[in-house]
């Protein structure tokens, strides 16, 4: 196919356009009217005063599509975030479809036009000039989101949603303030079958750790599908450098390291609070979670209130050295969580969030340690044209290669 401009495609649809900063207030008003309801709560994301600020944290280049009602008000939005990530060990331009929100009252013609426009964008992803030779589209859909499953995943005429993996978005609400005779998970590294239990060495990273940490992150990400573009050389303009430059209060000091007796990094995580560009607001809380919030306040947790902002501590850059077996991995995670929970600067956070996958199996190790958690299952999909699907132009799935998904900017 010949190269084509995104605006040429969009220009064929009277009720679809690419948003500009002038749309900021209208988009914020629209988003404030769309809540995400679950069995336990009603929540929404507040991205005021600048809807586009979060996109700068998410990636270097993005496009926000707006779907216009008959009266020119906004009835829906969708974002495409573009960046280079690893696919089969090769750095590849990808597009992540996210933040798809539509009003139940969206003008019918706009709904039809978006479906057709979206299909053309997906089919032309490698030829759209502004996408910089994008090779694949992917998206995440909550497993319980029946509307999205019906509207997107189950349709195959215009585009195909091919499942490449599953995950769980886990929120740690706290730990019970009273004790049970429960065991801590697993042992750390045992060099011999009969060696004694050892605790990993957990500490905060310093500037001296940059070379080793970069090498560790580069190795961990390159072997994964959707791995981040991180390289050992700190002078290279990679994803880690971009995040240091754009993420609020994020630096090498944000990283927590787990090392072995020789001082080598075997795991890392970077707790990050994202309350400047995107805040979670609870509009309604079930009686059970109100009571649970009161119980957890006995252990020093701040109470969650209706209409209040939930301060979330995102466990970003959660990585483990290749070859670490499940019990060791769970033990490392447990000890890093203990370190984080004792860190004063994080004590005013309501929840701690991380992404769990079938390969990691981290959540199961916390249940016996008095952690109270809520998990939301989701699925990752490659979004492709029916033609690409028939030709087998596929992203590697979770069964053939480890898959990663970053909690902080999802």
In short:
25% of the residues lie in helices and 31% in strands. It contains 11 helices and 17 strands.
Layout of helices and strands, plus pairs?
Elements: H1 6-10, E1 16-18, H2 24-32, E2 36-37, E3 41-46, H3 53-58, E4 61-68, E5 74-87, E6 90-102, H4 108-123, E7 136-142, H5 146-153, E8 160-175, E9 201-204, H6 210-222, E10 227-228, H7 239-246, E11 256-259, E12 265-273, E13 279-285, H8 287-297, E14 309-310, E15 312-320, H9 326-341, E16 351-356, H10 364-367, E17 371-384, H11 386-391
Parallel strand pairs: 6-7, 15-16
Antiparallel strand pairs: 1-4, 2-3, 3-13, 4-5, 5-6, 5-10, 7-17, 8-16, 8-17, 9-11, 11-12, 12-15, 13-14
Give an overview in words:
There is one protein chain. The chain is of the alpha+beta class. It has 2 domains: 6-166 and 381-391, Gcn5-related N-acetyltransferase (GNAT) (Aminopeptidase, 3-Layer(aba) Sandwich), CATH 3.40.630; 170-378, Gcn5-related N-acetyltransferase (GNAT) (Aminopeptidase, 3-Layer(aba) Sandwich). Helices cover 25% and strands 31% of the residues. The protein has 11 helices and 17 strands. The strands form 2 sheets. Strands 1, 4, 5, 6, 7, 8, 9, 10, 11, 12, 15, 16 and 17 form a 13-stranded mixed beta sheet that branches. Strand 2 (36-37) and strand 3 form a beta hairpin. It starts with 5 loop residues before the first helix and ends in a 19-residue tail after the last helix. The relative contact order is 0.17.
